[in-house]
């Protein structure tokens, strides 16, 4: 944080305020819960979240493990980033595997090939198996209108369900994490951040990201107004054709439903300029599964998705 | 107190690039008696030194420099049903270019669907904010939502709170973190009971700044006299509640008059637009004027080879400042020690202030744990077992005298007993019903649970409670310590948050009692509003 400035004016900038709030939330969870875990996908939001966790407990190591819900359709660059980060910080990594869940017959592959909605079952199974009582997620309220209603601390029942009508009111910075056995709390330390805040923070802190966030040449095909990467999960079809384009990703998710955008932005500064000028939201531009219906996200959250 | 209408305002900006190159707003003169105004001065100072408007600088760099200086304002909205609150928020988002093309096209589709397929309807901006299925079905807002928009100088977190009477609790929730509240009235209807209720909740929660948005001015032909009368009536009411910063703005949310763009239809109005006012409100209190408070969240003990003996107390500065060398008391125990280090991941600090998250190291190996509060050793701090506070009941199940509860205050959670509800605010008349038969000689095992008058708080009721705590806690008066004087009542069985409370004598004491228990009986029996 910019010490000189804040000392003189006794005022925090927006990013300092958001950082301080995120660190506060992390420490509340560590102080109140027995077995927290941080969801780490290798995406920019979870990377920022992990950065806040390092700040919150320094000089001690991050006092909880990280969990990756592995859809089996990952960008190789992201898996490499995940493994390098875990090794560098000495973290414990828990992997909840969609492929395992499919192999065990706990979930069934969907016809469209998207594995994003399938993440819920292995996620909940892992929470139960490891008896996690608090699960950090990188969700932001600016992402989607159902998420705008989400609390920082979100109580989930034993089925992982979110009920927007029964949320606990959240007052001041008093987060109520009481829960019964079998229930858990989803915690969103980045609730009040926007996509641009995340990028500006990445720039200010000099945080390294997987290379797919920056423009690179990639074989893609067009579907639903997005550029999708090819793969065994269903593309390109006979009527779709591959072409090499200069693209980057605004979000990192399952490869089957995460679209790339045309972009010349190869640096953080260029990405910030591009995001600031964009006329499309992050999810609107790149997430096929949010387009299913007007309440797609709300419906998935009710089922236990983040 | 009168409504302030500053005569010097920046010219309206007619077009907005995504970075909103507003000129910085002029600040009102600093008043040394008012901790808020002194901060305004330093904010203005910062703006003056930023290279924001220097055209010789690379625009990208200038934008970056502006952003580095940008601060955060939290605000809440309150309005009655159909006052156009969702439309106003939609307008703020839309006119600050915070609505992106895919969101707008979704709203256009939804508008057309509701209009029976008519494609030429203006997009219903209210649909931007009602995000849940049930809300869109019913066309109302049922829960607090948080919205984000920003300008060149400031980022905003807006708590969008429903205006229905039965959602008072949501207004309380939104107002708890807000530094500014926008109270909406319909220019045709003027100040209603609902408006007074919103002002009362705003005052109870200690929101420092209030904007009265007199909406639907287009429907009263932008009548200056009408606006002035409403502004005056509201100012009088607010003044009685102790709210002394009110800015009234005549707006049409539907058409965008005086929301972001200045209206040509109110030539008689020389005050700021809504957004211009938001841009110039001081964001943080002068932290140097407040006593230091540090609720300890977590004890950091790495026990690594690099830091074998490190012991730090992690937390967020709730009020005031702390410096290396300060002597502190550990409360409630009262033990003392001296700050020898203020640590952060980014390096040590000499001084920390609210609301920074830091880690403090102390000179002595005193017993400090989560739930303790660090405060200046040379200042008296109230601690105790008897908590008096004003609560807003948040749960469907009503309060029960003698109930065993948990009180969450700061980072501490203690067992507690609800001993008494001795005053209830009639949120319709804004009178206070006091209960004459309060037995102050209660002991823990002899709580009178069968009073003649049901001393009960139902959902959304506001009242004063007496709570006995199992362990002593710091009892900071909410009126002076907004971050440490708030508390929650929690059900120990299922963990539900039952009530939000504010420590200390409050507005309820200032309001004139309207009745005692006998005549209040019928009303109280139906207190579940």
UniProtKB/TrEMBL annotation, chain B:
CDD domains: CysN_ATPS, CysN_NodQ_II, CysN_NoDQ_III
Gene3D superfamilies, per the entry: P-loop containing nucleotide triphosphate hydrolases, Translation factors
GO MF term list: ATP binding; GTP binding; GTPase activity; sulfate adenylyltransferase (ATP) activity
EC number(s) stated in the UniProt entry for this protein: 2.7.7.4
GO biological process, alphabetically ordered: sulfur compound metabolic process
Keyword field: ATP-binding, GTP-binding, Nucleotide-binding, Nucleotidyltransferase, Transferase
Listed Pro residues bias regions: 20-29
Residue span(s) of domain Tr-type G: 70-287
InterPro entries, sorted: CysN_GTP-bd, CysN_II, CysN_NoDQ_III, G_TR_CS, GTP-eEF1A_C, P-loop_NTPase, SO4_adenylTrfase_lsu, T_Tr_GTP-bd_dom
Annotated spans, Disordered: 1-40
Name of protein: sulfate adenylyltransferase
Species whose genome carries this gene: Cellulomonas soli
Phylogenetic placement of the source organism: Bacteria, Bacillati, Actinomycetota, Actinomycetes, Micrococcales
